[in-house]
Amino acid sequence: MSGEDKPVFRKVKNRFADEILGVDDYRGDLAITLKGGRIVDICRFLKNEPDLDFKLFVDLCGVDRSRLPEAEGESRFMVVYHLYSVTKKHRVRLRVPVEEDNPVLDSVTGVWLGADWFEREAYDMFGIKFRGHPNLRRLLCHEEFVGHPLRKDYPVRRRHDCTRPADLLIDRQAAIAESTDRMFINVGPAHPATHGALRFGMEIEGETIVDLETEIGYLHRCMEKLSETVTWNKVIPYTDRLAYISSGLNEVGYCMAVEKLWGVEVNRKCQLQRIIVSELSRIIDHIVVLAAALVDLGALTNYWYLFRIREDVYEFLEAAYGGRMMINCCRVGGMYRDFPDGWEKKINIAMRNIEEFVGDVHGLITNNRIFIDRTRDIGCISGEEALDWGWTGPCLRAAGVAYDIRKDKPYYGYDQFEWQVPVGTKGDCYDRYLVRMEEMIQSKRIVEQALIELREYENEPVNLDDRRICLPPRDQIEVDQSDGEGKKTRVKDPMRNQPYDKIEDLITHFRLVSEGTKPPPGEVYSYIEGASGEVGFYAISDGTGYPYRVHVRPPCYAIFQAFGKLMRGHMIPDIAAVLASINIEAGELDR
Amino acid sequence: MHGIFTLLATSTHVESLDGDWLWALIKAIAFVGIFLTIVPVMTWVERRGSAFIQDRVGPNRITVFGIKNAGLLFPMADGLKFLFKEDFLPEKAEKILYTLAPMMIMIPAFIVYAVVPFSSPIMHESVADDGAITRYIFSIQIAPNLGVGLLFVFAIASLGTYGIIVGGWSGGSKYSFLGSMRACAQMISYEIPLTLSVIGILMVYQTLSLQGMVAHQTGGGLLGISWLPHWGIFVQPLGFILFLVCAFAETNRAPFDVVESDSELVAGFHTDYSGFKFALFFMAEYASMVTMSALIVILFFGGWHIPIITPENPGSYLIDWFRGFDMSLLWASILTTVIHFAVFMAKTGFFLWLFIWVRWTLPRFRYDQLQALGWKVLLPLGLVNVAITALLLLFYGM
Amino acid sequence: MISLESYIPALAFLAEAAADAVKTGASEMNFGAGDFFFYLFAVIAVFSAFMVVTAESPISSALFLVVTFFAMAAIYALLSAHFLAVIQVLVYAGAIMVLFLFVIMLLDLRKEELIEKRHWLLGAVGFVVGIALVVLMVASFRLSQNVEVAVKSGTDQEAPDAAKFPAIQESADQIDGSRIEAARFGTTRRVSKHLFREYLFPFEVASLLLLVGIIGVVVISRRRRRRRPPGEVIDEEGAS
To answer: Which residue segment(s) compose the domain that C75 sits in?
Structure first.
């Protein structure tokens, strides 16, 4: 439980010994607690020191520790930074205590551009002010909102009426009104290109975008606050609704975080099933992104070709878990249930169709001159800048940085499979398109290999045999199924379980469902490769059945904050191309 | 030289019914009726066609007394829907212009049909005692004697721009305003290569009359090959490609539909329109598609001409063939006219399908790329085409 | 190779038929359909020209000007000058006025902005020009009456004015000539023959002037605005 000997800590200690308040290595997460005074210097050091090289700004969030038993008498707030080095492949968590009566901290937006929205969010949710932030306004909550919702003393059920649309580009309005060739245009929250409720205002000259500012939060339901009101397992449906087109991935990420809090690893069979669900989710996520992007460029037919595959995948997910989009398939320590009969056939249909329809889309579009003209050199970003903004996933890889968590920190044995990470060169829309197209094929390869391995575990249980975490196993009720010709066979009905025959099991079941699983107190950050980048869950347990704090690190949040800068100098039609290519899912963006 | 023209040239005297105002009016009503019917059929073809291309079923749910009709009644339902929808007038709209705009786009789209020769003329003959043959002629064309036919088409079609501009401007919305600005620039830019692309073929045909152009293309034996008709596509391949591209741009169809591109400008110049006003814009788009298809057929595919491929007698024509059955000229020419009309519509139908096919295949241009294509590629190519045609005509004759 | 001559008889027939139509249409009644349409379009032209000047919104003004052009084109067509009519619509109504509208919309001129106090000199100049126009109009009326007289008297006696007005001589010849000629008076062929044979030099000079104009516009507008590569941050002063 000590990170004293970790090289990252030693480096920091050599330089800033006076600033360090403590160090921790709980479950392998190096966490350094620092004083707030020289945070910008420390961050700059962490970023620029060649041996540390923390170029990727992963996450920043606040924590209200006022109800945490072990934090009694300490500062109320904690600002938590998560950083990663793509070259050195190491991570660090910085924890900076902030006093309640003077919640001010220096902004690190000067070090990483990506800190921008994360600091605004921390301000919005906790009221922590960041000195030197260029635009410290509310982001997820409305400007008329009163109070800071993630503070523990803010009641969950309080409501505010917010009536006025937020002002965008306030400091530009006067100039626009004066100018004869400039115009202010509002896009969204309901506009065909936004694919969800988000809004931006832009200043245009002719059709060229001079400046663009975004407003998000239309779908904000404060999922992190809601999570604190339910047991650990009941958070899973909330995670479904983050990146709602690849809900399986969020669930896997969340369950991994809780399992990390427990310090347990799920069965291999469960791992393989999670891998299959993850990769299928990744495929359908990419399908939706690509299809929507192509529709926005006027190539509607590709949408239908791609959505055929999505339908095949949904057929399987529906058979397995009952839901299509919100599958709610994972449980802490296992899965909701085993794959149903005939699952292999359904997946194979999907796998076969991927090849065919992706090939069709390649044939229709990839070498199409109009498409290339529309996407080449549009929305370019360099690898370095992308890291600085906190970009991850296909968008980062398209910019030439081969950072894929499945390769760099393989979980669930991703390294045992044979597959490759596609990387782009220019970081433009075309590269992002190609990277996603190729990732679908690579995901298909992973699924196929996982299928073969999964056959070996046919009769083994999916869930952990641990009564603190998982429900006791039950058999399914057998029912008669008629094949239509009078012949009847006995099959297991996946919807109905046998009753428990032991009182211990019944009591365990009752306690786990009503009180929830109770991971030991501690904090972890767990992350997986989501469809559009690193999906991270920062979870704090206080030893009760309810999460003390669950923070989601949504990949598209980091990506979308660069949008305004990305669009400057482009034309209005490019908005559709860029917005679709960076994959904004409002459910995840607004949480 | 088509049999019909040989007949006319050998007449002693020709009487025409074409100057009659009443007949012109009847024909006008008939053709407008026909093309008003084509528009809903086209929407059906567009929907079913796109479904076919996109591997799905398409609209098929309307049944009448339990009879399935492959969704053929959807256009009717659409029409009713448009009629009963609220006719929305935006607060900032300029009321008169806002109401006039759909008409401004619709009327030119239909006036253009005045000069389109849909089929060969119907003829009747009477032989006088002195052997002089008087032939009566009735053209399947509203205004057959307008010598400037093609220019008339361009002139009227260019007026359609006003509907778009005024429609986009008068709504008072920024999206539709941007759409109409784009429309303005696009239509003017593409009118130039469009006009240039036909100059080559005008030099070959030496006439502006659409009927004259069809007459020119009815000859066979191009390049010494007996069965090869003298169609514009073989005479002016480059001109054809240029015209085709510009036709797509002038009708604002994909991939040139930046004027109403849904992902950027919501619906472009008609964002604010609803109800039947919107339907008029919608219909005008299809009407101008029909015009452009008809023009392509007339200019480059011989109009109503059928290349009859009989190796023994390459010069034979339908009307001569019918007359060979001892038929009177009137009946022979009526039959010919009907068949020619069907052929003309079939050819036009093919190009209408091409419009749909392309729309569901290609992505959309960006607005500046579209302009670059028009000015930097099509315009120079059009000039080159004119120069080449002029040189060929000068040295070889055609 | 198919020779051009082979289908010329057919076309000649078409022209003849047209001439027939014109003739029957015109001679049947005193106040023929042609007359009716002339007065109709004349009224439209004058009314819309008046509205161009008096309309409040510049957009309406421009649209009324389009109507004027259109009515003019219709009158040309009634005078058998089909080519001129079509060109009038194509160039003026279809292209130039579209550009005018474009500019008006671009500058977003609203009703009130145009009504500004005018200098008294402007009024005076307007008055003088108006008088001049009226004089010109009356003069041209008288002139056209002379022409009519000359045409009417052309066959009876030596036309005294024929030497002064070569064009009259020609039109007199035409009326004397075949009906086909009459129908062909405004055709593309006839106009282009005039344009490219007799008036080739003025034509070329005019096109040269237009070229100069185009180059001038390009030069001026290029200097005003420079293209920006995407991604560049645009500052305040960049545009103006």
So the answer is: 32-116
Interatomic CA distance for residues A215 and A198, integer angstroms? 6
**Region B140-158: what's the mean pLDDT?**
78
Chain CA centroid to CA A11, Å: 30
| Minimum distance, in Å, between the CA of residue C140 and any CA atom of chain B | 29
**Topology of A3-131 in CATH?**
Beta Polymerase; domain 2 (3.30.460)
Task: Judge whether B164 and B284 are in contact, CB under 8 Å.
Answer: no
Q: To the nearest whole percent, how much of chain C has pLDDT over 70?
A: 55
Contact B147 C15 (CB under 8 A): yes
Look at residue C179 in the predicted model and tell me its pLDDT: 46
Domain ranges for chain A, please list them: 3-131, 236-466, 478-514
What proportion of chain B, given as a percentage, has pLDDT over 70?
86
**Do C233 and A568 make contact, defined as CB atoms within 8 angstroms?**
yes
Q: What is the DSSP string of A546-559?
A: SEEEEEEE-HHHHH
In a domain, C217, yes or no: yes
- Closest-CA residue of C relative to B2 is C7
Interchain proximity A179–C228, CB inside 8 Å: no
Question: Token pair of B316, please?
Answer: 């034979």
Q: What pLDDT, in 10s, does the model give residues B151-185?
A: 888 888 888 888 888 888 887 777 888 888 888 78
Measured CA to CA, the distance from residue A207 to residue B366 in angstroms comes to 11
Cα–Cα dist A100/A104, whole Å: 9
> Taking CB atoms and an 8 Å cutoff, what residues of chain A touch B265?
572
Query: How far is the C-alpha of B236 from the C-alpha of B389, rounded, in Å?
Result: 8
Question: Is residue A418 very low, low, confident or very high in pLDDT (cuts 50, 70, 90)?
Answer: confident
Q: What is the pLDDT at residue C212?
A: 93
Q: Which residues of A touch C (CB under 8 A)?
A: 175, 179-182, 205, 208, 210-211, 377-378, 380, 566, 568-570, 574
CA atoms A421, A424, A428, A431: torsion sign: negative
**Cβ–Cβ under 8 Å, residues A96 and A36:** yes
First-to-last CA distance in chain A? 33
The answer to whether B191 contacts C89, with C-beta atoms less than 8 Å apart, is no
DSSP state at residue A571 = B
Cα dihedral A232, A235, A237, A238 in deg (nearest 10): -170
Assigned domain for C60 exists = yes
A3 C-beta neighbours (distance < 10 Å), count: 20
Cβ neighbours around C185 below 10 Å, total: 16
Collapsed DSSP state (helix, strand, coil) of residue A545:
coil
ipTM associated with this complex: 0.78
Q: Top-level CATH class of A236-466? A: mainly alpha
**Phi and psi (nearest 5°) for B338?**
-60, -45
Kindly state whether residue C25 falls inside one of the protein's structural domains: no
Is residue C211 predicted with pLDDT exceeding 90?
Answer: yes
C184 within domain boundaries: no
When divided into structural domains, chain C yields a total of: 2
Where does the pLDDT of residue C24 fall: very low under 50, low under 70, confident under 90, or very high at 90 and above?
A: very low
Q: Which among A171, A180, A202, A382 is the top mutation candidate for probing chain C, defined by the most C β-carbons within 10 Å of its own β-carbon?
A: A180
Q: Show contacts of B170-174: CB within 8 Å, 24+ apart.
A: B170/B93, B170/B94, B170/B97, B170/B98, B170/B101, B171/B90, B171/B92, B171/B93, B171/B98, B171/B271, B171/B272, B171/B273, B172/B90, B172/B91, B172/B92, B172/B93, B172/B94, B172/B272, B173/B90, B173/B92, B173/B271, B173/B272, B174/A183, B174/A185
